[in-house]
Design goal:
- The chain has 478 residues and is of the alpha+beta class.
- The chain has helices at 79-99, 148-161, 179-185, 232-242, 287-303, 314-317, 320-330, 332-335, 383-399, 402-405, 433-438; strands spanning 15-20, 23-29, 34-42, 51-57, 63-69, 104-109, 124-129, 132-138, 166-174, 194-200, 205-208, 247-251, 257-261, 264-270, 273-276, 282-284, 345-346, 359-364, 370-375, 420-426, 446-452, 462-467.
- A six-stranded mixed β-sheet has the order 6-7-8-9-10-11, with helices on both faces. It has a six-stranded mixed β-sheet with strand order 17-18-19-20-21-22.
């Protein structure tokens, strides 16, 4: 592996080692490339089983590194990923030199730093010009999710600011994938840092202005009455099942009705059909099916409860976010006494966010101000920015008066103030970086982290409540 190049597989037929006096040369070739390097030494500190790091000569008496890797060694299973990271690291280096020719690259690394939560998937750099400093981070084409670059970029920026005066962060993401980063940057605080965004295609990069990204991909359905046009027999079936102890009836904005046990949906009625099952759905058509659904609900309620004897049962541990969501829906006043107990909507507005692993809820307080509630049952480094994605979409529809126009929050006069943002997670399961990230949010994003007790499955109790504190290191352009 030669940083900046694709890894070359070595076979018995495509390499040669030769020596001329004190000069040792390694040559390797494929149908598309030919690599020739002069070996000047071996990195003793980089030598480990199945891997050999060689010092190679470069122009101007400079040296570089060439790595030989044994693919059969179990410790090298990630060699393809590491090779891709090294290749993009050198592309990233060239991008920095092109975009910041007057700045000096002081640090550039793809090494993991678990103590400071810095991922090896995103190369990071420190640039200096006189006494000024600038942080930079990049996401490779075809590599880790480009949306994650900003999360690690803010961590890197904050880490460097404990050592130096850093003006801001430059984020490099693949062309075509920059919109999410640009939308997020618009809701970061410009008073505390510069945020520069570049879109690259592997060969070159262009600076983009986040303010040019004004269209948010989002959709708000018109709310329909649950089972409003369904046949009476189906309505009766749903009512009977919903009365079983432990079953939650949940109405969705598209008019369907879900039946759940502590967040786990086992049946859903839509139109004139009732579908049931966990992994494989079938349609209920007879009274016998309704009895089968009732038995399924009772069994789930017995296995999926706080005092269950078998906590290793997959049905108990399945979808913890959904279980915590059901607690939040049932007791929203335990999180905030000002929240109305109903209605609470899930995943509205809708957007293509992929498998975010976060539950999005939308509630309203007694003064008519919307509250976005993001629920996460485990540590997630990206929680604040994923929550911001949903918050900005709610604000988008609120600014256009679309919620009440489409049947949401009937009887409540909504204020036009920006929504509040509540991040809800078990008190010990907040990632340490979550607090520092929200410090970089714009003041218009009012964030509150709510930590609930570890026994949240039994009782939803708030252990701490922390409002976001703005970054205390304002940026001032020279």
């Amino acid at each position: 592996m030669d940083p900046g190049e694709d890894p070359i597989p070595i076979t018995a037929e495509n390499f040669a080692v030769s020596s001329h006096g004190a000069i040792v040369t390694l040559e390797c070739w494929t149908d598309t490339c030919n690599l020739v390097r002069r070996v000047v030494g071996i990195h003793a500190t980089g030598t480990r089983r199945g891997r050999l790091e060689l010092s190679i000569g470069r122009f101007g008496d400079n040296t570089g590194t060439l790595t030989l890797v044994d693919l059969a060694d179990p410790g090298n299973r990630d060699v393809d990923r590491r090779g891709s990271r090294l290749k993009y690291r050198e592309q990233f280096r060239r991008s920095l030199r092109r975009q910041f020719p007057d700045w000096r690259i002081v640090e550039l690394s793809t090494e993991p730093d678990l103590h400071h939560s810095l991922s090896p998937s995103y190369p990071r750099a420190l640039l200096r010009k006189g006494t000024a400093g600038l942080a930079a981070i990049g996401a490779a084409e075809g590599g880790a999710s480009p949306e994650g670059a900003l999360s690690f970029g803010l961590i890197w920026l904050d880490y460097l600011r404990h050592r130096l005066h850093i003006e801001g962060i430059a984020i490099f993401v693949p062309a075509g994938a920059e919109s999410t980063t640009c939308h997020r940057v618009q809701y970061l605080n410009p008073e505390v840092a510069r945020y520069l965004v570049f879109a690259h295609d592997g060969a070159h990069e262009d600076a983009v202005d986040p303010r040019d990204y004004t269209n948010i991909k989002t959709r708000l359905e018109t709310r329909r009455q649950g089972l409003g046009e369904s046949r009476p027999q189906l309505v009766n079936w749903v009512d009977r099942i919903a009365r079983i102890e432990g079953v939650e009836r949940r109405e969705y904005v598209n008019g369907s009705v879900g039946l759940l046990v502590r967040g786990l949906e086992f049946a859903r009625a839509a139109g004139d059909e009732l579908h049931f099952g966990l992994d494989h759905k079938q349609t209920a058509t007879t009274e016998a099916h309704v009895q089968e659904i009732a038995q399924l609900a009772s069994g789930l309620a017995h296995m999926r409860r706080e005092g269950a004897a078998d906590r290793l049962n997959p049905l108990y541990s399945r979808h913890p976010e959904a279980w915590l969501e059901s607690q939040v829906r049932a007791f929203p006043e335990h999180l905030d006494a000002t929240l109305l107990p109903a209605p609470i909507y899930g995943q509205v507005p809708q957007f293509a966010g992929g498998d975010r692993g976060v539950i999005d809820l939308l509630a309203v307080d007694r003064d008519g101000r919307l509250a976005v509630i993001e629920v996460k049952a485990t540590q997630d480094i990206h929680l604040p920015l994923q929550a911001l994605d949903y918050w900005m979409r709610v604000k988008w529809h609120l600014d256009r008066g679309e919620f009440q126009g489409r049947g949401y929050f009937p009887g409540v006069e909504l204020r036009r103030d920006a929504p509040r943002l509540l991040l809800v997670a078990p008190a010990l399961d907040y990632h340490p970086s979550n607090e520092l990230m929200v410090r970089y949010f714009s003041p218009q994003v009012q964030v509150e982290r709510v930590g609930v007790g570890l026994e949240w499955k039994r009782r939803l109790r708030v252990m701490f409540r922390a409002s976001s504190v703005p970054c205390l290191t304002p940026y001032s352009a020279k």
